Amino acid sequence: MKNLLTVLPLTLFIAACASNPTTHTTTTNTSTNKAYDRMAPERFVCEDNATVMPKYSIDGEQAIVTASLPKANWNNQNLTMTIAPSGSGARYVNSDNPNVTYEWHTKADSGLMGVKWANGNEYIVNCERQ
After folding, report:
1. Which listed CATH number (2.30.130, 1.10.3200, 3.30.479, 2.40.128) goes with 24-129?
2. What is the pTM of this model?
C-alpha cells in the first residue's frame, strides 16, 4: 500500500506532462483546435507605443495575436488569425467581423499590424521583433 501511495503522485505528474499542448479560444468568432507549443509568444514593439505578441500554431496555419494599440483603444486584444497568401513573409488575417478586418504580416524581424474598418478607415503600425 505504501508503494502505491508513493507511485500514484508520480504517475499523475507524468500523465499531466504528457498531455497535448493547450488550445485557445479568443474574443472573436474564430476558435482554434490547433496545437500550440508552450513557448512564450514573440514580442514586437511598434510605433505609436503599440505592442504585438503573436504565437503560432505548430503547423503554421494559425496565429493567436495579442495586440495593444493605444491609438485604437486596444489593451491586450486577442485575435485568432489564419494564414493567408503572401508575396513574401507570413501573413495572417481575421475577417470574421464584417465591420473590421485584422491583418498581421511578418518578414524576418519586421511586422505590420493592420486594422481596416468597413467604412474604409485603416490603422497600420510598423513593428520590430525584440
Report:
1. 2.40.128
2. 0.72
